[in-house]
Amino acid sequence: MLQKTTQTANAAVEIYIKISEIVYPTFLGTTIIAHSILLLFIIFFSPSHLKFLRILLLKTSIFDVLATVINFYIQPRILADRKENIPVYCYGLCRQMNTQLCFSLYMAWQTLSLAVGISMSYTLFFKYHKINGKGPLVGWRMFISMFLFYIPCFISTICSVIIVIRNTLPPMSRKVGDEDDDEVEITDIRYSEIGRMTLGEIPNKVNFAMMSYGIYFSPILAFWFRWKSNKNLKTTISGASPYLQYHAKSVMTGLALQVFMHFIFYIPLFSLYLYSLYTGTEILLQQFFLAMSPNLAATFDPLINLYYVVPYRRRIKSWFERSQPQRTSPLRVASITPSAIG
């Protein structure tokens, strides 16, 4: 009976491996294509008044692409059912490389994913600060606000360095599906064990807390900033031109949609991770695709930007309509800039 159960479990693992072999390359390809198109628009089709927005889009795009490429290179499987001593298996090209380097990339990917989520929250805070009449965030105000927002990333980076330095692997690694408590050598060349997350140690606990903050609290904070901004948006731009009102609302909608996309992609699988962690239940969906979930939105982010950034959308629309995009006077551009992007 036990042997039959083990065979069934191994068959399920094989199915997930086959799915991963299709999903990861597809995900990488679509992400690179989408961000390449966005990059072309940022460089060649951004009006001068979108200077700050260009920087913001470029930064987020770089974070997204880096996180996606690293994720593809590693293709980690996180066995949360092992509770405090969690093995991390590598199914990507990184399995052929140095184990410590591969584990370092895995920890760097975590920090990058956290930075992407915090960047979106900070963008909405930037908008909230402007709309509520507190003035633009420039100089030391911007530096202090960014520092405070990115404190979880700084802490996570420090913890990651400590975790990587302390990372040790047993001389013999347990093979997936093996019911024996003794460690046995992994003979399947399709993956290798690159590290173990020892949640009983303080650096791992602190890093886990920072990731949980980014996943659960950061989106809530972002939506709060959006709610407060929308509450005063109508009053703030009531005397502005119709174009300004349309542009400002469009940017706010796009930002909120991006936060929501990350929210729905990551929280369900991370919640399964927590459930598996505390109950010891093996959930293959969580093991194979938890690492992909925070970067799934990376494919859709460029499409959202291309639609909700009005100059980009008008440029694309003009190509389909075979007409020139609507031009905006310098005076109108100057009036749009603070509220639309700041």
Protein described:
It is a multi-pass membrane protein. With 342 residues, this protein is mostly helical. It has one domain (2-341): Rhodopsin 7-helix transmembrane proteins (Rhopdopsin 7-helix transmembrane proteins, Up-down Bundle). Helices cover 71% and strands 5% of the residues. The chain is built from eleven helices and three strands. A hairpin with a 6-residue loop joins strand 1 (76-78) and strand 2 (85-90). Helix 1 runs antiparallel to helix 2 (51-74) and helix 9 packs across helix 10.
Quick structural overview:
A 3-stranded antiparallel β-sheet has the order 1-2-3. It starts with a helix and ends with a helix. Helix 1 runs parallel beside helix 9 (297-308) and helix 9 (297-308) crosses helix 10 (310-321).
Largest sheet: 3 strands, antiparallel
Structural class: mainly alpha
How many helices in DSSP terms?
11
Average pLDDT number: 79
Q: In what range is the share of β-strand residues?
A: under 5%
SSE sequence, one letter per element: HHEEHHHEHHHHHH
CATH architecture classification name: Up-down Bundle
Would you state the CATH class?
Answer: Mainly Alpha
Round the Cα radius of gyration to an integer and report it: 23 Å
Strand order of the largest sheet: 1-2-3
Helix content: over 70%
> Which residue ranges are poorly predicted, with pLDDT under 50 across at least 5 consecutive positions?
174-185, 328-342
Distance between the termini: 64 Å
Strands, count:
3
Number of domains: 1
Shape: globular
* CATH topology name: Rhopdopsin 7-helix transmembrane proteins
CATH superfamily: Rhodopsin 7-helix transmembrane proteins
